[in-house]
Amino acid sequence: MVVVSAPDAACAFLKTLDINFSNRPSNAGATHLAYNAQDMAFIKHGPRWKLLRKLSNLHMLGGKALNDWAHVRVSELGHMLQAMHESSIQNEPVAVTEMLNYAMANMIGQVMLSKCVFATKGSESNLFKDMNMFTAGTDTSLSTTEWALAEMIKNPSILKRAHEEMDLVIGPDRRLLESDLPKLPYLQAICKETFRLHPPTPLNLPRVSTEACQVNGYHIPKNTRLSVNVWGIGRDPEIDPRGNDFELTPFGAGRRICAGTRMGIVLVEYILGTLVHSFDWRLPEGTNLNMDETFGQALRKAVPLSAMITARLPLNAYAP
Fold this sequence. Notes:
Blueprint: E1 2-4, H1 7-16, H2 28-33, H3 47-61, H4 63-68, H5 70-89, E2 94-95, H6 96-113, H7 132-154, H8 156-169, H9 185-197, E3 207-208, E4 213-215, E5 218-220, E6 225-228, H10 230-234, H11 261-278, E7 279-282, E8 293-295, E9 299-301, E10 306-311
Parallel strand pairs: 1-6
Antiparallel strand pairs: 2-10, 3-6, 4-5, 7-10, 8-9
Helix pairs in contact: 5-6, 6-7, 7-9, 7-11
Binding site for heme: 258
Protein name: Flavonoid 3',5'-hydroxylase
């Protein structure tokens, strides 16, 4: 097995030798949870993978598909804002992770199944067998959004500057629109910095070599497993993330780059921006912010984020 923790080596494996590392190794998770490793993430590179990739881009994850489903994101985010606003009126802390989970699952559920996964908060009645893309779509975007909010609560000056940018671009009388996002470079920078510090898949999905090769003077045998330590590369003190050559790879790279990259970025920027613009954020009195990590389907906070919020917009902005 090879674990890559340097950017030049990562570039060699994921770009220069991309075709040689375009397959996934077999594992129990892919066998039992991904249709015997036949889903888009784990199937061998070939005609079937290309077909799955094409269909997903055409109907769910491509630019046109994202635009076609924009109304779903607006509607589900409106329901989440309404629930959070009610909590703020009652002076109750908001369970951020739970709220994000409901909203994101319903967004992706309507795209994939034309129905909500959770009809109401706390509902356990809507259980689906087709949860494969839910894991990829909800856990990664959810964890990134939660980490970004936690970092902003931890650093109030960053939250204040984000508020100032949004007040200037959007104003205090309406919700954020997806069309506002290109005009919010500071928000986009916050999202990128969160991807650097808290990549949802810190080792990316593993790959395996189909042929022996040479990388940076090392002989890599056939069938060698490859993991790229994105978490370590992003935090390497010898690398300046402000440089022009720093390249984020939280979604992987090459042929097997995550098919949902565009959707993931849109979800994180839109949801995070809306939450930041709509509320002031602070910790519940007498609590401390726990920034410990735990690894599951994605790199999550060990202690789910709970926060007190105060409305910043008119009442009608919180209607679904």
